[in-house]
Amino acid sequence: MQRIESAATQKAHIESEDTDSKAAAPNMSIQRQGKLIVGNCVDVMRGWPDNMVHLTVTSPPYDKLRDYKGYDFPFEEIADELFRVTAPGGVLVWIVGDRIDGGRSLTSFRQAIYFQEIGFSAHDIMIYQKKNTPFMRSNAYTNAYEMMFVLSKGKPATFNPLKVPTQRHGYELLTHNKLPDGINKKKLGQLKKEKTRTNIWSYAVGLGGTTNDKIAFQHPAVFPEKLAADHILSWSDPGDLVLDPMCGSGTTGKMALLNDRDFIGIDISSDYIEIARKRLLQSGFKAIVRSSA
Q1: Which pTM was predicted?
Q2: Which residue in 169, 175, 231, 284 has the fewest CB atoms around it within 10 Å?
């Protein structure tokens, strides 16, 4: 992916204070280093230069389905800043659902349209399917998914397609040039051993599915590590800067660092930042923590 700035230059724009230099075990292998910032993500991002983030993967507190310690969620201001700080060719993955109360709120679609209006391209609309959701509905089918809006600033600069094995592969007669007369014409062709995944991704949820990190469930809403990793691998390259402006328990950060990306996480709750810090440390990564105040 073409970089607007080097990783070192990007880091220089954000002053940080290392509050955890002695916390890691002496023999622990420290690789890349994450940044965690306590503060309102709008205020934090306003202090950043344009075009510095290659990929954002986040699941915001939509429709007030959870109590995030009473904090507000200024969606339009967040969206505006995300567009400004995203590099040309960069991608935002926005993972949301809708409140179901006498019908769906459709908040997710309204947000997607706003992103489009401010300049993002709706590159893909993907589905996050929950394999083992327990929430039954009495008068409708069980809700088992959330939307994953893949929004890009221009054409995505990076796409590393994830593959799955095909059921059949090798050479066989394949339908070719079928005309309006309906006659199947066939010729010898090759079926490949693997193909690009569809845009419906399924994951187990809960302990052992979402993550094995028990500390993560001190946050009220955790999305699967594999989901975050799959998007990080798809839309970024090693060394790229990955952001989660509402980082919660630090899932995006853990998977970014494990996959050799730089990471910045922001959360308005110091309690959630502390969960993320401890979780990253347990995974072998030192996190620099600072407050925007």
Answers
A1: 0.80
A2: 175
**201 is written with which tokens?**
């991704």
7-162+197-291: which CATH architecture? 3-Layer(aba) Sandwich (3.40)
Distance CA 125, CA 200 (A): 9
Gap between the Cα atoms of 232 and 235, Å rounded: 6
User: Which single residue is written with the structure tokens 């995505």?
Assistant: 156
Where are the chain's structural domains? 7-162+197-291, 163-196
Spatial CA neighbour of 194 closest among 163, 238, 240, 220: 163
Q: What is the model's pLDDT at position 20? A: 40
CA distances, 152 to each of 63, 90, 122, 141 (Å): 24, 6, 7, 32
| Residue type at position 79 | A
Task: Work out the end-to-end distance of the chain between its first and last CA atoms, rounded to an integer number of angstroms.
Answer: 33
| Mean pLDDT in residue range 259-276 | 94
